[in-house]
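== Protein entry: sequence and backbone fold ==
=== Local backbone shapes as whole numbers ===
==== Amino acids and backbone structure tokens ====
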Amino acid sequence: QAKRKAAFGSVGRRIPYRILHVINQDGESLGNMHRAEALRLMDEHGLKLVLLRENVEPPVYRLMTGQQIHEEQLKRAEKKKASPKPGMCTKELSFSSAIAKNDLETKVKQIALWIEKKHHVKVTVRQAK
């Protein structure tokens, strides 16, 4: 089965790794510890364990409050919105400020067509000499 990236959030009690590197809610490293010890800390402080990096040995988990998890999810959503979509195409058009009227009208029609097709359009006007 294909392994897909889970959304950022609490992992609850399902931790597939035996040894974890744990960071507390203030960002301080608590070092490597056994899964049971991390779960005990989670229960004691009323926090949730969140997987930060799983491609390192041991995987890094952080103890977070529900509010911290929510804020981090909002940050990641903003980043995702800001990044260009993979299917999105950017068209670039450059012309001189001394362009003839007919040529300018032709380019405006081309830009309108690209915008209809949901392309991003970047127009550069060079100053005539």
About this structure: The chain has two domains: 19-82, 90-126. The first strand starts at residue 19 and ends at 23.
